[in-house]
């Protein structure tokens, strides 16, 4: 943000008019107007008085501050998430500009990388642009993986390992996996108790709902992977049993209904059963068009008015694009490539 914009924003926050600022500093009103438009700059001798008038210090006026508070990061991330629902490119530029403004704020950089990485997966931008943006996100995460902040460092390493596995760069993935401690103490319940005493039961319950959602989603992903492993080792009956458990889990924990179909699709893909795959892909696509009504679950209802809660109401088409891209690019779907019925199904949803 330019100094002129800062003067304007802080002036309005202080409830001052341009005329009042001009009177206080003994300059003309047009001079203040020119500062705010960026046409000219205040004389250096006026800066201490200007900062006092606007109730800020010189560091804030000149962006010497290198870190943002947790609250400021949270507010920006919420704005970024909302923008990403409409335009990934706009959100990407917004995040990039913020990082330029605060290049040493590791927590901010990691948070931006997390939001944009999730948005990139569901975006409809072309593959070349997607690779370009992915490269930048990886660069940001590699920076934060060296952070002195342990939480940021470990989280960044975990995310990088996941991305490198996705790119089938297993050597690089292992480098970052080795940086993650084997055992990290889970302080969730203690944190919940502290929040309840400091900020109230609702705030603590909201925090716990988020942790629960994260944990349940992780368990769901573990089960998906276990199904694949059982198929690979020839334990087909075990894979089917785990698929049934995974299906029931969706209802029990109020997850998105398409998750009931995914375990059976994983089995069909492993067995290269074309007919079954097409039938299940149809079901997955149909379910993906229905919003995840997470707020109707007693487990997550506090998310109703949050960015996360609202975002799940409109991800259907993005999910279709992501699935189509996965089938087109991943080796395990090779047997489905060129299937006219499948192409017709996707074209119906993507028209």
Task: Give the proportion of residues in helices.
Answer: 55-70%
Structural class: mainly alpha
Q: Which residues form runs of ≥5 with pLDDT under 50?
A: none
Measured distance between first and last alpha carbons: 40 Å
Beta fraction = under 5%
Quick one: biggest sheet? none
Keywords: DNA-binding
Organism: Dorea formicigenerans
Domain HTH cro/C1-type: 7-61
GO molecular function: DNA binding
Task: Report what the structure shows.
This protein has 351 residues and is an all-alpha fold. It is built from 19 helices and no strands. It has three domains: 3-61, lambda repressor-like DNA-binding domains (434 Repressor (Amino-terminal Domain), Orthogonal Bundle), CATH 1.10.260.40; 70-177; 195-350, no CATH class. The longest helix is centred in the middle third of the chain and has 32 residues, at 201-232. 22% of the residues are buried. α8 runs antiparallel to α9 (127-144), α8 (106-122) runs parallel beside α10 and α12 packs antiparallel against α13 (201-232). It has helices spanning 3-13, 18-25, 29-37, 47-53, 58-61, 70-86, 88-101, 106-122, 127-144, 150-166, 170-177, 188-199, 201-232, 236-252, 262-270, 274-288, 307-311, 316-329, 340-350. The two termini are 40 Å apart. Keywords: DNA-binding. One of its GO terms (molecular function) is DNA binding. Pfam families: HTH_3 (PF01381).
């Amino acid at each position: 943000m330019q100094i002129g914009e800062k003067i304007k924003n802080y002036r309005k926050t202080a409830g001052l008019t341009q005329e009042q600022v001009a009177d206080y500093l003994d300059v003309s009103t047009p001079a203040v107007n020119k500062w705010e438009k960026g046409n000219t700059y205040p004389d250096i001798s006026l800066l201490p008085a200007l900062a006092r008038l606007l109730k800020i210090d010189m560091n804030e006026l000149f962006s010497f501050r290198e870190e943002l508070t947790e609250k400021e990061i949270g507010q920006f991330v919420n704005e970024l998430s909302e923008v990403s629902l409409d335009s990934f490119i706009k959100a990407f530029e917004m995040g990039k500009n913020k990082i330029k403004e605060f290049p040493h704020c590791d927590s901010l950089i990691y948070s931006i990388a997390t939001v944009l990485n999730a948005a990139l997966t569901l975006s409809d931008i072309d593959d070349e642009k997607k690779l370009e943006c992915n490269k930048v996100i990886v660069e940001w995460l590699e920076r934060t993986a060296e952070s002195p902040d342990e939480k940021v460092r470990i989280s960044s390493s975990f995310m990088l390992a996941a991305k490198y596995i996705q790119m089938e760069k297993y050597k690089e993935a292992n480098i970052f996996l080795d940086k993650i401690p084997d055992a990290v103490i889970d302080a969730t319940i203690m944190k919940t108790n502290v929040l309840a005493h400091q900020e109230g039961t609702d705030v603590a319950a909201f925090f716990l709902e988020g942790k629960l959602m994260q944990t349940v989603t992780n368990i769901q992903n573990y089960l998906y992977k276990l199904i694949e492993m059982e198929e690979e080792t020839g334990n087909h009956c075990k894979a089917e049993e785990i698929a049934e458990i995974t299906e029931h889990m969706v209802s029990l924990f109020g997850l998105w209904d398409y998750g009931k179909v995914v375990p059976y699709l994983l089995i069909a893909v492993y067995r290269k059963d074309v007919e079954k795959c097409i039938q299940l892909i149809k079901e997955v696509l149909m379910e993906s068009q229905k919003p995840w009504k997470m707020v109707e679950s007693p487990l997550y209802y506090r998310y109703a008015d949050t960015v996360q809660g609202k975002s799940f109401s409109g991800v259907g088409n993005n999910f279709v694009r992501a699935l189509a891209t996965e089938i087109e690019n991943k080796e395990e779907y090779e047997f489905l490539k060129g299937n006219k019925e499948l192409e017709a199904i996707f074209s119906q949803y993507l028209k």
